[in-house]
Design a protein that fits this description.
globular, 620 residues, 8-stranded mixed β-sheet, 5 helices, mainly beta, single chain, 7-stranded antiparallel β-sheet, 41 strands
């Protein structure tokens, strides 16, 4: 295992004794296009994070550097550690926060930036996961934003506040990151034993349409067909970041002798046999990077019993309808011939891609839930269950929070994954530090919350970037035939809802058996009608997709009008000790002197009173 040894007195040792640190414990984030870089590691036992920033003062160009954290990337009400350094003669550190208009910097009442080193080339400090201080942003395992800025000025904080100087765009940044995360995983096989397989586009002319799904089908090379391999890592090859929204690579899960024609074109025009290629092998969405499998498992590929074709699907988002653009994006799969102990697979949880589900306009955080009901896992999973080691949450523009809850009968187990501050710009595939085991008969409920403030009409489920999705792609082993475990409201329930809106609510433009999208968009939404729709979604039977890799449903249950999994609402925030009713880790609420202070982590309360949403909405 790669490792480093921190010498006595060094930053990594905390200035005491030398310690042995694996490089897999270190995480890095490039803050600018130069040498400014953040490195951090977790001390899970002490519940602290150690931070190290390289070149914060630009080799003497800057005298003040600040770095901190924001709930949703705004510079307003940002938690900062502020470092001042001037020619080695002046050093000062303050724990502070910014005002609502980002015009002022205030010094915190309580100081929690534990300084380890400040010199001309670096700063290092520690901070607790949760300081129990409303003037600090608590650390968590979802999406956070690292905010930094620097200025040639020495800030005067003698009065416990100062005006923030104007800085150029090159001297500040805001970057999404998963701060509290599992250790990195290295590929243990020797480089010579790892071979590359690439599937990518070749200078495709991107249509001047808002949404295009482009498909390429190619045949595997003979060496892959001669012997089964394991994918141990996959890497995105994104050539047009402004155009590519997400990509997936699919196996053709059908008989080895089924001939599937090579194809390169719009997915809507793809031959029907191409749809047999629907078993997910690799995927990427905005913000994701390379994904590495744990050493005990790999995703199977090739071999004499497999179909020799794979399919790449690229979602282009071209909202400006610009013509003349080309793209050569794709995926690189790193494979080994010596098989690991377990075959891995990918399963989709959440909602069907359908306009049976809708989100009314002007909602702070409207929830939609997709169900993987107990009846599906009972018929599809092996007796010992599956181990989930990775998860990628996915929505389109309006998603602000996503979580997957895990139920075993009446007992609720820890969440499969949760991001209370989700953004579609950062859809990383997350290695799970807690690896849950899902048994036959367990139920999984994936709930996405949507912010539709600023929109005039209902948002529908669908494939376009202007539609919405709610998905959790889970990575697990051992592999099963269960490819999709997703739901939507049943057709019968939806017809009854539209009939009610016509006959009782007098929404006269509704046609109960008509186009769902037109019906939803014709409703004049009021608070009462929004509540009625939510009540229907959380109580009416489901159309359940308990599907194999070939697209067929598992037998053994009637999946249409399936019963909904009951669970408690609302889903409350993960405990926030800055609010007295959410005490944990020895915190009993805000310190008495700070009871007046609205916590930095709070935003605009939604209908459930959960204050985690931004107070302002930037419509994208």
């Amino acid at each position: 295992m790669d490792s480093v040894t921190a010498a006595p007195g060094s930053v990594l040792s905390g200035g005491t004794v030398g310690i042995h640190i694996s490089t897999t414990q270190l995480h890095t984030l490039q803050l600018d296009h130069g040498p400014l870089r953040l490195t951090w590691m977790m001390d899970w036992y002490k519940r602290k994070v150690l931070f190290h920033v390289k070149n914060p003062f630009g080799r003497g160009k800057y005298r003040t550097f600040a770095i901190g954290f924001s709930a949703r990337g705004d510079r307003t009400r940002t938690d900062l550690c502020v470092f001042s350094f001037a020619h080695g003669l002046y050093q000062q550190v303050h724990d502070g926060y910014t005002s609502r208009d980002f015009g002022r910097l205030y010094v915190d009442t309580l100081q929690h930036c534990e300084v380890m080193r400040v010199d001309e080339s670096s700063v290092a400090f520690r901070r607790k996961f949760d300081t129990c201080d409303p003037q600090d942003v608590p650390f968590h395992g979802g999406t956070m934003y690292v905010v930094w800025l620097r200025t040639p000025e020495l800030l005067d904080l003698s009065a416990n506040w100062t005006r923030l100087p104007n800085v150029s765009r090159a001297d500040w940044g805001s970057l999404p990151v998963q701060l509290l995360r599992a250790d990195q995983i290295r590929v243990p096989e020797k480089p010579a034993d790892v071979r590359r397989v690439e599937i990518r586009l070749d200078r495709v002319a991107v249509p001047a349409d808002e949404t295009t799904y482009w498909c390429r089908i190619q045949r595997l090379e003979p060496w892959l067909l001669a012997r089964k391999h394991h994918i141990v890592q996959f890497e995105p090859l994104v050539r047009s970041p402004a155009l590519v929204h997400h990509m997936e690579v699919f196996q053709c899960a059908t008989d080895p002798g089924t001939d599937i024609p090579l194809y390169n074109g719009n997915c809507r025009d793809m031959p029907a046999t191409g749809k047999l290629c629907s078993k997910v092998m690799a995927l990427w969405a905005m913000g994701a990077g390379t994904f590495t499998y744990p050493p005990e498992t790999g995703l199977p590929m090739g071999g004499p019993g497999s179909n020799p074709y794979i399919r790449l699907e690229v979602h282009f988002n071209n909202p400006e309808l610009i013509a003349g653009q080309t793209d050569s994006s794709g995926m690189r799969l790193n494979v080994v011939s010596k098989l690991r102990p377990h075959d891995a697979a990918i399963m989709e949880l959440g909602l069907e891609y359908t306009d049976k589900m809708a989100i009314p306009p002007e909602q702070v955080a409207f929830p939609l839930s997709g169900y993987c009901i107990a009846e599906c896992t009972k018929v599809a999973l092996p007796p010992a269950g599956i181990t989930v080691f990775g998860s990628q949450l996915h929505t389109h523009l309006r998603g602000v929070r996503v979580l997957t809850r895990h139920f075993r009968g009446p007992l609720e187990l820890p969440n499969l994954n949760r991001d209370d501050f989700f953004t579609h710009h950062y859809q990383d595939i997350r290695q799970l530090r807690y690896k849950p085991r899902v048994l036959p008969g367990d139920a999984l409920v994936t709930t996405c919350y949507y912010d539709t403030r600023g929109y005039d009409t209902a948002t529908l489920g669908g494939f376009s970037i202007s539609d919405e999705m709610c998905v959790n792609y889970i990575h697990y082993y051992p592999a099963t035939q269960l490819e999709l475990c997703k739901s939507a409201i049943s057709e019968k329930s939806l017809r009854n809802y539209f009939a009610y809106m016509l006959e009782v609510e007098k929404q006269t433009q509704i046609v109960p058996d008509g186009a769902r999208s037109e019906n939803y968009r014709s409703i004049r939404w009021t608070r009462g009608r929004v509540n009625e729709l939510l009540d229907v979604y959380v109580s009416e039977p489901l159309s359940m997709q308990c599907n194999r890799s070939d697209g067929g449903r598992f037998e053994g249950f009637e999946w249409e009008d399936a019963p909904i999994t009951p669970f408690r609402r609302p889903v409350r925030l993960q405990p926030a000790p800055t609010m007295g009713k959410y005490a944990k880790d020895g915190c009993t609420g805000s310190p008495p002197a700070l009871r007046w202070f609205k916590p930095l982590a709070e935003g605009h309360c939604d209908r459930f009173g959960e204050c985690i949403y931004s107070e302002t909405k930037q419509k994208e």
